[in-house]
Design brief:
alpha/beta
């Protein structure tokens, strides 16, 4: 029977709720309860801000929540759309709504960054280094330095690392700037735009540098050349940045699930471009590759990696199936990507997040016209941080917004840019506010993230399971994740894609380190639940 394949449904007589008892997964052991169910402790639900989402296209309101700041242990870089909507009234508003850094393309010229020539004597950026970020796209290497390799990785074997030195004048500027050395080392001059170049010489004073070249795919025979260039590039950049600057890349990552959350992803090995060591090839030394990177890999030099994925429209479609192993699921993808990658590397994780669907061949995904539904946007701002991730790069394909524009007559432009519903930004910031305004004290570096070790019961406490994101998805169960810090426990939960009139109950427990904590969570629709409790020991 189909019912048995999904799991035995157990009704709690007289309660009007349903518990779902899942069928056991191959690598999950159901732990039966020993003895009577212990006394439960109620979670204190986190407040929600009451606001009416904006309906004006090309506009969002950051005042749907009050001031709050991100904990010092986390970072969110704003590279989204529409900072211009608020910056004239209050340049600092963004930093009081959860964002801790801003990409240079969204900075205020003359106040936060100097873009035209040398700054005036004594001028200095209003931004601290930790608030500055730079994204290096493919065009930086291709257009500014003529490195065709940035667009076509098959040109790796003809790319120059650096020019031969001028023997007559070793200090002379190289005649050939079309080298990876020039592209990587000239970043040192960016400190001029902030008015804080060190006295010892120019070094980039950005807090974060994100690489977004996206030329990582290449033929097998070209892999060594590709590895050599990536390793040399990140090493050279690091030699020209301040000690406070952190660098990573959208690719390579250790594993990319491309928005899916399949069981096979949990068996993944690190991808070759992250771990493969540099080695001299038949022509690399003649092209300037130094010997000091031999044996080193890109992953050796990166300060963080960037597992994460953009959504496509099926992730937002509540009418389609989301419970098959190969089915798309917004929350299983968000959590699963982190669960897989945290096991492959202990380095910091910063995900690239966008609140609209990315373009793909999947249904209704040819344009980036669909905003994340309210629960998805809010859930991104909450559940992601339960994975122990370090940060987010919050991105959009538009920069400035002009609200209230008439709908374009060109159908290809409808739903894009100023024609979009940007209230998804409000729901996202609302999620950040609920989490960090009320529970920022828990993110002090002493917290423990349970992730898939979060223990739940779906049959009223008779059996207990620890499910990863894929298993929770395929069993069609509520998602629950928890953070423990001392005697404090913070719990997030949701039944993704649930109907508004649907109610689900799930129990969770924490029975470690002298605690014997049990609680029951009631979920309505697809709400994002967030609650906290103080655990007592010895009970």
């Amino acid at each position: 029977m189909k019912l048995l394949a999904l799991g035995l449904v157990v009704s709690l007589a007289g309660t009007g709720y349903w518990y779902l008892r899942p069928a056991a997964a191959a690598n999950v052991v159901a732990v039966p309860l020993q003895g009577p169910l212990p006394t439960q402790t109620s979670l204190v639900a986190t407040p929600r801000s009451r606001f009416t989402p904006s309906t004006r296209k090309g506009y969002y309101n950051l005042d749907i929540v009050s001031d709050f700041a991100l904990p010092a242990t986390k970072t969110i870089t704003f590279c989204g759309a529409g900072r211009n909507l608020h910056v004239q009234q209050d340049r600092t508003k963004l930093f009081r709504r959860g964002f801790s850094a801003v990409d240079q393309s969204r900075m205020v010229t003359g106040v936060e960054i100097w873009k035209d020539g040398f700054p005036a004597n004594g001028w200095k950026s209003a931004l601290q280094p930790s608030q500055r970020a730079l994204i290096l796209y493919q065009g930086y290497f291709r257009d500014s330095f003529g490195l065709g390799w940035a667009q076509n990785s098959e040109k790796a074997n003809e790319t120059l690392y650096r020019s031969a030195p001028n023997r007559a004048d070793p200090s002379a500027r190289p005649a050939n700037r079309n080298t990876l050395f020039q592209a990587s080392s000239e970043l040192s001059g960016s400190c001029l735009g902030f008015g804080d170049c060190p006295s010892s010489g120019m070094k980039s004073t950005y807090g974060f540098i994100f690489l977004d070249i996206e030329n990582d795919n290449t033929s097998v025979g070209n892999r060594q050349e590709q590895v050599n260039l990536y390793t040399y590039m990140i090493k050279t950049i690091k030699e020209n940045i301040s000690p406070q600057t952190q660098i990573g890349s959208i690719a390579p990552v250790l594993h990319n699930s491309v928005g899916y959350s399949r069981a096979e992803d949990y068996k993944a090995s690190p991808e070759w471009l992250w771990t493969m060591p540099a080695r001299q090839t038949a022509t690399s030394q003649q092209r300037g590759m130094p010997t000091d990177i031999v044996g080193k890999s890109f992953g050796d030099y990166a300060d963080f990696h960037m597992p994460g994925t953009y959504y496509v429209y099926p992730d937002f479609d509540y009418s389609t199936r989301h419970t098959g192993d190969g089915d798309r699921h917004w929350l299983a993808a968000l959590l699963g990507e982190q669960e897989v990658n945290m096991k492959l590397s202990s380095k910091k994780r910063i995900a690239w997040q966008w609140l609209f669907n990315t373009q793909s061949e999947l249904p209704n995904s040819s344009k980036a016209e669909h905003a994340a539904p309210p629960a998805v946007a809010e859930g991104m701002g909450i559940f992601y941080w339960f994975t122990g991730a370090y940060g987010v790069l919050f991105w959009d394909d538009h920069i400035d917004l002009i609200p209230g524009q008439p709908s374009p007559t060109d159908p290809n432009l409808k739903g894009l840019g100023n024609d979009r519903d940007y209230s998804c930004y409000e729901h996202y910031v609302h999620g950040l506010w609920r989490l960090f305004k009320h529970h920022g004290d828990l993110f002090n570096g002493r917290e423990t993230y349970l992730n898939e070790a979060t223990e739940c019961s779906y049959d009223g406490g008779q059996t207990w399971y620890k499910y990863n994101a894929n298993q929770t998805k395929t069993h069609d169960l509520p998602f629950v994740r928890a953070i423990v810090n001392g005697n404090q426990i913070l719990v997030s939960a949701t039944k993704a894609y649930a109907r508004p009139d649907q109610t689900n109950r799930v129990m969770m427990r924490y029975v470690q380190n002298g605690y014997n904590f049990y609680t029951t969570i009631t979920l309505k629709g697809d709400e994002i639940y967030l609650g906290r409790a103080t655990m007592n020991q010895g009970k």
